Amino acid sequence: MRDLLFRIEHSYNCVFAFEALVDATAKTSRRFGPWPEAWFFAGPGLTAMRPRLLMTWPPTVEAVAAVVPPRHRLVLAAVRLESPGAWDFIAKLNPLEVIRQGLNDRHERRKDHDYRERAESRRLELENQLLENKVLREKISIAKELGATDQDLSPLLNELVLKPLSALERPQDHALIEAAEIISDDEQE
Fold this sequence. Notes:
189 residues
């Protein structure tokens, strides 16, 4: 369970860091203009984030976690140990939505996985995760409007989105994660 909770928290922190990086870049770009190259490694608006997240690549678990302010950290709010059980988390909605949709999209893709070649299926799976997640797509769109190329975005998406979400595949394959959904406070009462 500890490993599962670590994977969920790290996935959340990574998606949060990716969104924060794109948001900081957009804010700085509005103030200082777009950057022609290496947009995510430069710019005065990213000075505070750069030492924690971008000084080493790929970023460490600790560096990614340091980007998440205390008020936006993932909090385990409740656990129901019954059949079916549930784990309730409190956190910022966008990263949770990315994780929820990534898990659910993967589950749907696995249903027709048997007739596809393994390598092609994996490539399509990664592409679909990027294309189907509208929250992430909006951030990617913003980054591209700021001048980011696919080559610029590739290391960020690999380290801060795809790898952390892939770390949730094993628990999902072992039925530790059966479904993921966002429930508003109104629905819980």
